[in-house]
């Protein structure tokens, strides 16, 4: 069905996992494949994805081929696939608020004149721009979203800044005739989707949830960046709403990143606790621990998202994509249970649902 031409803003660990994954699964064409939710997505296969542009502020990545840059410091994503040269060099992007003061040295930021992002997107003939900027990049995310609009390409927002779920931004993409998907990517089996499933199970089985928390620790630059509370305000909102939206009453919660533990590298450990009242008002308490490789955990989800966005482009669909956003993101325009979201995606693939 043709190429899916993808540009990336922020060539960190998540981008490394995505790019490795596209190469790793390139020859998978049918059947059930461990690690993938859809091998065939509306006629598009993983081998149809082509990376055509990348933007970063790290001096160790700028000017290098994408295939090399994804393994440059401070990236610590597990190397699970050799990526051949892609013939695309990393371009200097705007620093904006994408680099917190305490991250200037870890990100190897030096003064470099940024490229015109919109022009680079046009020159690369990108179908879409995937935003992987660090959490807390409010201004930077909007700069890249505007560049996508100016270049006439779709936008996939993988971080907790609200673009697809913001009515004003959604309207701008709709008026431009471009699809937008987001916000804040869910992992394949991550803390948020596990917490949602457990909370929904309690509620559907008649247990009243008194309180719940989700604590996350990790050792990659995502967690290092979020050691400054100001950087993760929207992250807490996104993760908390993803869980609380399924329960029709208020309950005390504490959800979000908790600590940076450098020796964990790209490993993430999540602790979930739910306190509830069951039959006879007697207590029920659940404690769960989940341990994952953090960055690859979202790669398969993004592979589905970019193919959904390409289908929307093919079909002339513009504005926020409700089905794939509800399925793949923590803070979508419309929050529904995960089983409903999955059904919506299957209907979208089949052409039975417009968005």
Condensed summary:
The chain has eleven helices and eleven strands. The protein has helices at 13-24, 66-69, 117-124, 138-151, 167-175, 191-204, 221-225, 233-244, 299-315, 322-328, 338-349, and strands at 4-9, 49-56, 91-92, 128-131, 154-157, 179-182, 208-218, 253-260, 267-277, 283-293, 319-320.
Topology:
Blueprint (H helix, E strand, L loop, with lengths): L3 E6 L3 H12 L24 E8 L9 H4 L21 E2 L24 H8 L3 E4 L6 H14 L2 E4 L9 H9 L3 E4 L8 H14 L3 E11 L2 H5 L7 H12 L8 E8 L6 E11 L5 E11 L5 H17 L3 E2 L1 H7 L9 H12 L6
Parallel strand pairs: 1-2, 1-4, 2-3, 4-5, 5-6, 6-11, 7-8
Antiparallel strand pairs: 7-9, 9-10
Helix pairs in contact: 1-9, 3-4, 6-8, 10-11
> From the helix content, strand content and strand pairing, which structural class follows?
alpha/beta
Main pleated-sheet profile: 7 strands, parallel
Low-confidence stretches: none
Strand order, sheet with most strands: 3-2-1-4-5-6-11
Shape summary: globular
Percent of residues in β-strands: 15-25%
Amino-to-carboxy terminus distance: 20 Å
Number of helices: 11
Number of strands: 11
Helical coverage, percent range: 25-40%
Radius of gyration, taken over Cα atoms and rounded to an integer in Å: 20 Å
**Which series of helices and strands comes N to C?**
EHEHEHEHEHEHEHHEEEHEHH
Please state the average pLDDT score: 96
């Amino acid at each position: 069905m043709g190429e899916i031409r993808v540009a990336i803003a922020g060539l960190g660990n998540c981008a490394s996992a995505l790019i490795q994954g596209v190469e790793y699964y390139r020859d998978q064409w049918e059947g059930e494949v461990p690690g993938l939710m859809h091998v065939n997505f509306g006629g598009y296969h993983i081998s149809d994805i082509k990376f055509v542009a990348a933007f970063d502020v790290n001096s160790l990545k700028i000017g290098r081929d994408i295939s090399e840059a994804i393994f440059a410091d401070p990236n610590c994503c597990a190397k699970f696939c050799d990526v051949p040269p892609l013939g695309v060099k990393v371009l200097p992007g705007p620093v904006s608020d994408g680099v917190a003061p305490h991250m200037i040295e870890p990100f190897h930021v030096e003064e470099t004149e940024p490229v015109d992002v919109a022009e680079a997107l046009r020159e690369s003939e990108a179908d879409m721009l995937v935003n992987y900027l660090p959490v807390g990049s409010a201004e930077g995310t909007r700069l890249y979203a505007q560049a996508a609009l100016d270049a006439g390409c779709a936008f996939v927002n993988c971080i907790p800044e609200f673009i697809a779920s913001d009515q004003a931004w959604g309207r701008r993409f709709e008026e431009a005739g471009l699809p937008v998907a987001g916000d804040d990517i869910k992992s394949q089996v991550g803390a948020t989707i596990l917490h949602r499933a457990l909370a929904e199970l309690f509620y559907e089985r008649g247990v009243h949830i008194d309180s719940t928390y989700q604590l996350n620790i990790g050792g990659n630059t995502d967690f290092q960046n979020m050691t400054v509370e100001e950087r993760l305000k929207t992250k807490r909102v996104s993760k908390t709403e993803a869980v609380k939206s399924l329960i029709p009453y208020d309950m005390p919660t504490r959800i979000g990143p908790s600590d940076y533990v450098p020796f964990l590298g790209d490993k993430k450990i999540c602790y979930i606790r739910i306190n509830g009242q069951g039959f006879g008002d007697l207590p029920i308490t659940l404690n769960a621990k989940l341990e994952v490789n953090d960055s690859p955990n979202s790669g398969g989800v993004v592979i589905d998202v970019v193919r959904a966005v390409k289908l929307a482009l093919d079909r002339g669909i513009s504005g926020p994509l409700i089905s794939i956003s509800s399925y793949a993101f923590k803070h979508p325009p419309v929050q529904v249970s995960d089983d409903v979201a999955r059904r919506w995606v299957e209907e979208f693939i089949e052409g039975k649902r417009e968005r």
